[in-house]
Amino acid sequence: MESMPDFQPLYKQVYDVLVRRIAEGAWLPAEALPSEQALAAELKVSQGTVRKALDALVAENLVQRHQGKGTFVAEHTQEHALFRFFRLSRPNTDGERVTPESGPARCKRRAATATEADKLHLKKGASVVEINRARLIDGTPTVTEKIVVPLKLFPELDHQTALPNTLYSLYQSVYGVNITVAKEELRAVLSNKSDQKELGIEPGTPMLRVERIALGIAGERAELRISRCDTRNIVYAVEFS
Amino acid sequence: MESMPDFQPLYKQVYDVLVRRIAEGAWLPAEALPSEQALAAELKVSQGTVRKALDALVAENLVQRHQGKGTFVAEHTQEHALFRFFRLSRPNTDGERVTPESGPARCKRRAATATEADKLHLKKGASVVEINRARLIDGTPTVTEKIVVPLKLFPELDHQTALPNTLYSLYQSVYGVNITVAKEELRAVLSNKSDQKELGIEPGTPMLRVERIALGIAGERAELRISRCDTRNIVYAVEFS
DNA sequence: AAGTGGTCTAGACCACCAA
DNA sequence: TGGTGGTCTAGACCACTTA
Q: What integer pLDDT is reported at residue B1 of this predicted model?
């Protein structure tokens, strides 16, 4: 509140404190934060300043507020998490999402390749868990997923008994890793042998390849996911404003 | 401020008034709006309420604010408009955008097809203008664009002397159509004869097909655009939060 | 009835910009 | 110097929830 160069507005400082506390698990998902009044008293700022910080948290989907009830850490429920980052939908339906089922998953533990280490910001040869599975849409196999995560963030993930349809709720509830941002790069490729085997697709069929890096609340790189989609009956939908 | 069922917060009402005035051209792009104080006095609300409405306009990219100067209607400058909706970037660069040049455009006026009329919410057989062009990236043709717009919204567009690299600034400055939202559907397809001719691509090459509907400020459907991209050196980048 | 978030106001002080 | 937006405060009233 004194030196010029590193000046930060009060509400931004409050925001940072709250983000850190949530990241540290001070309040678990679905738990209520203290009320505006309580936070204001504790941090010695006005209620309006706390409110401005909380509004920013709402805008980033880190908390949800309910009039009369309180402010709650956002929860990655199954359906919620599923649709937050799942962009596939039926054509010409204004982005009406489609619900994918998940085929059986195959898990293995191994060392990261050079490109994986690069993309996940790991040391070369660090241990990772690779998960492979197919996703069915309307009962037909349509997408293959290869998921690579650092073992360090998810110890014993490869020995989990059953992997849920949406891994992100598992990441959050079991490992405390809260996925908040996903960056995706899309390109068109031709089906490979694995696509042909997993999805029963003829050679030469064009596929949409989606490479995702998922980041946790503190910006840590938590997951590399490569999806290959048969887009003959389904599209990847985006909306900008 | 009296009946319950259709209650709208004051700041929302202020927001709606300002959106309507901007849409009507009360202040042209790059022009300054009245100051917070002036708006508050005119609309008989407090400055804080006006501020909350303006903050919402900023969040939707409809206005820009500059401390000490004022609040200005957002302008779709060439570069600005270019990067707002252009998602192509180099791989592994965290979405660092690539600057596309525009090849020569071919324009024609014709009747809308059934699917075009459907997607643009036009009557069957309404007049449209179709624009075809290729885009070069690093000097090599990489994307073809087919753009279809209602003639009614853009009279004489087909007789424009030179089409700019970014059509949206032309839409805004000449026709008063302010593109604020774009919905895109992506799929992987194989190159067709036109791709092969325009881009010099071999048959059987996978292409990323992007179908965009662009909406104006009032939600009117202003443009249908189909891009076909060679994604061997370039990717379509998206980030969610 | 008590506690929560949602809205609205009024006023203060600041940093920035232009004349 | 005067006007602008940016921040911060304090307090009021409301609507919603829970008990």
A: 38
